[in-house]
Amino acid sequence: MSPSMSPSKSEPRAFLDIGHDHSHCVADALGRAEALCAVRGARLTKLRRRVFELIWASHAPVGAYDVLRRLSEEHAPAAPPTVYRAIEFLLEQGLIHRIESLNAFVGCCDPAEEQHSGQFLICESCGNVVELLDPKISKAIEESARRAGFAVTGSTVEVRGICPGCQNGGCKSGGPRNGRASRG
Amino acid sequence: MSPSMSPSKSEPRAFLDIGHDHSHCVADALGRAEALCAVRGARLTKLRRRVFELIWASHAPVGAYDVLRRLSEEHAPAAPPTVYRAIEFLLEQGLIHRIESLNAFVGCCDPAEEQHSGQFLICESCGNVVELLDPKISKAIEESARRAGFAVTGSTVEVRGICPGCQNGGCKSGGPRNGRASRG
DNA sequence: GATGAAATGTTATAGTATTACATTTCTAGA
DNA sequence: TCTAGAAATGTAATACTATAACATTTCATC
Ligand SMILES: [Zn+2]
Ligand SMILES: [Zn+2]
Ligand SMILES: [Zn+2]
Ligand SMILES: [Zn+2]
Fold first, then answer.
1. In this structure, what are the phi and psi dihedrals at residue A131, rounded to the nearest 5 degrees?
2. Nearest C-alpha of chain B: how many angstroms from A123?
3. Which protein residues have a CB closer than 5 Å to ligand 2 (ion)?
4. C-alpha distances in angstroms, A131 versus A33, B1, B6, B13?
5. Residues A164, A14: contact at Cβ < 8 Å?
6. pTM score, two decimals?
7. pLDDT tens, position by position, for chain B (184 residues)?
8. What DSSP string runs through A115-166?
9. pLDDT by residue (tens digit) across A31-71?
């Protein structure tokens, strides 16, 4: 049982359940990753799996050097290329996304969904991020690009703001990552 | 007369006119900036103006250290805080935008338009960027965020692809800035 | 077990951004 | 005009993010 009410499967949850059992998120994500890599013949090695887990450690984006530090604590000291190569693999496989405005990475909520653009709601208070897969946003972007004669290869939507939990006073998560203030 | 056909004022231009007289863009932008700062009582100092001009030097985003190099050529050698502070001012005034996926900056095409989200088409071939101000994209994002109970403070839309000129074979501009390959 | 390809280790360096403190310049009020 | 005080700029050091180049190990296949 989840400590807070879970939304039904048929409608999108409002944001992250506060106090949800995150180990389920990680386990589920790992299961999906294993399955996808198996199908594709991609090698989810021990190192890559560990980096994946560290990035999935929370719903807040994780920086490459955070991963590096954790890795160095567990094993012998690691160097940047170790983690950047793992991240590169995970990005190529669509298992994680890069949050451009934070120089950090989050697990993908639906890696089986092919080639989706990244759409993210980023809470400036608790640092948590949820991924959207909203066809209306994609459509609006595609339409606008088409009018300009622009051939789209990919896009990123990063929305800053305050999540419902923080509006009410209560996300306990670690707080936000750096991030620049911005006018719009 | 422009060497390539100009679109009418009433419909949005397709992309940048190839071979347009860019000095006009810069002059116009500088005029708008002066006027806005005057109205607001913001101090567009000599240094800030020069940084603004250097960022407006092309339609491709310019990195802070590019600005720094130019500045150092003109005056005595400058240090990073000099340019970052000027950039901070220009961002606050909405005179330029940050392109998150490139760690670089472009002039805003319509700084009088208050608090608009950044929406950009970024050509991966020539490096040029055009800014969109598409209410449909904004609306779709706002609607999606509202459904999630998320209070938006700002957003960035960065669309990668190939501009019409490059599709036809011919933007002569300097080529793209670094930028990471991406799945979506 | 030999072989080549893929993955990882290691060292060095490039590129981006901020902190902290000193100095200069500008603005307002006396 | 003179003079605080604020704003802007100068300067030095450092932190954070990312990649290049080359060595070594691991893995799949023959
Ligand atoms: Zn995703
Ligand atoms: Zn929050
Ligand atoms: Zn703008
Ligand atoms: Zn182009």
1. -95, 135
2. 8
3. A 123, 125-126, 163, 166, 171
4. 17, 47, 40, 32
5. yes
6. 0.91
7. 333 444 444 444 557 787 789 999 999 999 999 999 999 999 999 999 999 999 999 999 999 999 999 999 998 899 999 999 999 999 999 999 999 999 999 999 999 998 898 999 999 999 999 999 999 999 999 999 999 999 999 999 999 999 999 999 877 667 788 777 655 5
8. TPPEEEEEETTT--EEEE--HHHHHHHHHHHHHTT-EEEEEEEEEEEE-HHH
9. 999 999 999 999 999 999 999 999 999 999 999 999 999 99
SS3 of residue B92 by DSSP: helix
Cβ contact (<8 Å) for A167 and B161? no
Handedness of CA B8, B10, B14, B17 (dihedral sign): positive
Would strands B104-107 and A104-107 be described as parallel, antiparallel, or unpaired?
A: unpaired
What is the dihedral sign for C-alpha A114, A115, A117, A122?
Answer: positive
Q: Which one-letter amino acid corresponds to residue A162? A: I
- Between helices A80-92 and A46-55, what is the axis angle to 10°? 80
Tell me if B136 and A144 make a contact (CB, 8 A cut-off): yes
Task: Kindly list the structural domains of chain B, giving each domain's residue range(s) and its CATH number in brackets, ordered by start.
Answer: 22-168 (1.10.10.10)
Helix axes B46-55, B64-74, angle to 10 degrees: 120
Count of all residues that appear for chain B in the document = 184
Residue of A105, A159, A168, A178 for testing the chain B interface, max B β-carbons within 10 Å? A159
Q: Which residues neighbour B150 within 8 Å (Cβ) at sequence distance 6 or greater?
A: A15, A121, A123, A159, A161, A162, A163, A164
Selection from A175, A165, A162, A68 nearest residue A122 by Cα: A162
